[in-house]
Amino acid sequence: MTARQTIELLRRHESRNVTFIEPDGSWPIVWERASGVHVWDANGKKYLDLTAAFGVAAAGHANPNIVRAGQRQMAKLLHAMGDVHPHALKAQLAQELSRLTFERWAKTSRKSEIGNRKWPNVPSRFLSTAAPVPRRSGCTSARSARAA
User: Fold this and answer.
1) d(Cα 58, Cα 14) in Å, to the nearest integer?
2) Whole-Å CA distances, 112 to 87, 109, 117, 120, 130
3) Fewer CB in a 10 Å sphere around the end CB: N or C, the chain?
4) Rounded distance, CA 110 to CA 13, Å?
5) Phi, psi of 7 (to 5 degrees)
6) Average pLDDT over residues 101-107
7) Phi then psi for 79, rounded to 5 degrees?
């Protein structure tokens, strides 16, 4: 399928707020394949991937070790709806991420915790980069829209 055909299918069948498409069809670049740090578009043009999306920044596209690990896991269990039906690997990953971050930080620096119903036990040093959205921010929630 050509890039123009792909873009046309997106225009016809995808919500307009998902993929930005230039009116003349010059954007987006439609990717066909990828390997390492490179991607190729549907017309065969090679690009250096500077997007660093998801795990590609650390592992590269089509990293053979990652592909093999993924194939092994997919043969065993592809998707478990981890927030509803967790898998043991999810718990092990959470434990390891905690060990590498919060547990390590707690040992090397003072940790002050605050707690209330919106921010339960969040170390205060992390709150400087995030804040709750005010109730009247100009956004309409589903509940307030139904009440109106």
Assistant:
1) 30
2) 32, 10, 17, 12, 16
3) C
4) 53
5) -60, -40
6) 74
7) -150, 130
* Bridge partners, residue 36, by sequence: 61
Residue-wise pLDDT for 18-68, tens only, equals 999 999 989 999 999 888 888 899 889 999 888 867 777 778 888 899 899
Taken in order of first residue, the domains within the chain and their CATH numbers are: 3-74 (3.90.1150.10), 80-108 (no CATH)
* Whole-number Å distance between alpha carbons of 7 and 17: 14
What is the pLDDT, as a whole number, of residue 108? 54
CA–CA dist 125, 112 (Å, integer): 8
62 contact partners, CB below 8 Å, separation of at least 6: 34, 35, 36
Quote the CA–CA distance of 7 and 4 in Å, as a whole number.
5
Q: Which residues of 91-109 are buried (b: 16+ CB within 10 A; e: fewer)?
A: eeeeeeeeeeeeeeeeeee
Task: Report the DSSP beta bridge partners of residue 61.
Answer: 36
